[in-house]
């Protein structure tokens, strides 16, 4: 029996459009076919800075996702018309400004950042679901239920804003969904002593030839997610890591944290050559807690 992903009701299950009609009308990115891209990993597990700068994205799968018919078929009519419609309506002004490219310094208000964060999180929840796209389940059912009950984005979900260069903004993919993070060790970490090559590591690896240390650290982050939405050249990053007692996030530069608290200014935005360069701006840092 179908049940709503948010309220768990089995009544009046509808198809919720991931992107509302006003978004679809303003979107300028060609979406005849969307590609699922992933890192083209080198054979080694520990990556030097040179390896990282040369990394590319490869096509992992290809499937038609016409934006007008991209839906999640497990949302009830009540949640669709009230809960989600309110989130979309509150964010319409700020997201429309991003889509039109007329986003200005004065738009960074607490109210706008809250509306943008809720919209980004709602979009990620409905998009990153096996009922919507051909991708493994990343987000647990409890996240949908908690969002519906609290009507708030959890404080352990970090949302930030970046920007693509003008030449790339309408040629990039609409989203990136992964559990990939650049991984670093604190110099005080006992684990760092076990790593003799480099301290940067792409955490989400499927192959099994990982050390015991790396296997443990990967297991700690098995429920994490790292999603980037491309809004006509503005990039919304939505990140969750489950073990904040063990890990912290480090952003190199050029993006603005909008949730849980606005921490930067619009002047801090720099333009990125492509989405992958923006993705690699974020590092997952092991804090160095002793074993």
Keywords:
7 helices, 6-stranded mixed β-sheet, globular, 26% strand, alpha+beta
Short description:
Helix content is 26%, strand content 26%. The protein has 291 residues and is an alpha+beta fold.
Describe the global form: globular
Q: What would the average pLDDT be, to the nearest integer?
A: 78
The proportion of strand residues reads 25-35%
In DSSP terms, counting alpha (H) and pi (I) runs of 4 or more, how many helices?
7
Distance between the termini: 46 Å
* Structural domains: how many: 1
What is the helix content? 25-40%
Radius of gyration: 19 Å
Secondary structure class reads alpha+beta
Largest sheet: 6 strands, mixed
SSE ordering? EHEEHEEHHHEEEEHEEEEEHE
Number of strands: 15
Low-confidence stretches: 41-50, 195-199
Quaternary organization: single chain
């Amino acid at each position: 029996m179908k049940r709503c992903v948010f309220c768990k009701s089995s009544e009046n299950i509808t198809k919720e459009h991931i992107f509302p009609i006003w978004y679809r009308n303003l979107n300028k990115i060609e979406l005849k076919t969307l590609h699922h891209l992933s890192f083209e990993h080198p054979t080694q597990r520990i990556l030097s800075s040179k390896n990282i700068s040369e990394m590319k994205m490869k096509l992992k799968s290809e499937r038609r996702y016409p934006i007008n018919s991209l839906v999640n078929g497990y949302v009830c009519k009540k949640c669709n018309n009230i809960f989600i419609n309110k989130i979309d309506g509150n964010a319409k002004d700020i997201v429309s400004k991003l889509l039109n490219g007329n986003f200005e310094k004065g738009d960074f208000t607490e109210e706008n950042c809250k509306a943008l964060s809720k919209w980004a999180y709602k979009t990620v929840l409905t998009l990153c679901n096996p009922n919507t796209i051909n991708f493994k389940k990343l987000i647990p059912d409890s996240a949908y239920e908690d969002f519906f009950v609290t009507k708030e984005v959890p404080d352990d979900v970090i949302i930030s804003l970046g920007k693509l260069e003008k030449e790339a903004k309408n040629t990039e993919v609409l989203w990136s969904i992964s559990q990939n993070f650049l991984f670093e060790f604190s110099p005080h970490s006992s684990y760092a002593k076990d790593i003799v090559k480099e301290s940067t590591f792409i955490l989400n690896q499927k192959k099994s030839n990982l050390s015991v240390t790396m296997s443990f650290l990967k297991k700690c982050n098995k429920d994490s997610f790292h999603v980037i939405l491309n809004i006509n050249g503005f990039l919304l990053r939505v990140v969750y890591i489950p073990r904040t007692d063990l890990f912290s996030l480090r952003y190199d530069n050029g993006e603005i944290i909008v949730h849980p608290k606005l921490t930067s200014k619009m002047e801090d935005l720099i333009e990125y050559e492509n989405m992958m360069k923006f993705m690699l701006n974020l590092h997952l840092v092991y804090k160095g807690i002793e074993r």
